[in-house]
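Fold it.
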Amino acid sequence: MNYIVLDLEWNQSHTGNHAEVKELPFEIIDLGAIKLNQEMHMLDEFNQLIRPSVYDKMHHVTSKIIHLHMKDLMKGHPFEQVMRAFLDWCGNDIVFCTWGSMDLVEIQRNMSYYGMNPLSDRPIRYLDVQKLFSIAYEDRKSQRSLEYAIDYLSLPKDIPFHRAFSDAYYTAKILTAMEPAVLKNYSYDTYILPKNRAEEIHVDFDTYHKYISVEFADKSAALTDREVLSTRCYLCAGKKNLKRKVRWFSNNGKHYYCVSLCPIHGYMKSKIRIKKTQTNGVYVIKTSKFISEEDFIEIQSKKDSMKKPRRHKKKK
């Protein structure tokens, strides 16, 4: 098994939303990658410019950041040619690694635009090195820049940032500096969703459980689904549904919360995030983790405080 550390640069509409191609809001123009083996030793590199065919002008912000111009891109090759060469170079039995969560989405969106099959027929397990950096060195939530992480780890900055190959190179440096135990905190790209219940994602991490659903027609269908609303203790062998101490509620219509009580492991907070699909449906990402009694009281108070305005309005 090899690690493919990938980075992309892309261009977008230059004149505003009216000129944007809906199916391809971001056109990839630069693809760089580093191949590492299981011992985190570098095996090979990939570096290609892509000749644009959708947006014929460089967005001024993109040009300023990556220092590329249209005349440079005209020396590149068509996307399909570069992508096929890249996939051949990757080989089989690989794990993609990216800085952040956007690259696998955009590369597959570009593949779809050109009539190519996606990278997989289901969610892709990959390593988000930006997230791993936060887990390994900070608060598990912050999203630092690539250059910040390089400086934090006192790694040499020997080539310029903000080109696909150089950013893949620096991402690989950060990845190889991490303790191997951190790498079990993988992520899932959901450009392609589970097609049926058997393919839905249920995975346990050190501090939480994650569930990724199939596609639903709308939010109402998702929020009446038994599996979506279930609150099983992921630490118990039987994994039976727990008694809810705070029923599902939302303060914004996108995120929903509840707290359940396991007689063995204590209070478990569950969070549902409603995500839109490319076909105007929705899917759910649900996370569950155990919390303190103080956290439970705080969540309970938050829900209770949401009831008060409604009661007041009713009295009027």
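Residues 311-316 have pLDDT under 50 and may be disordered.
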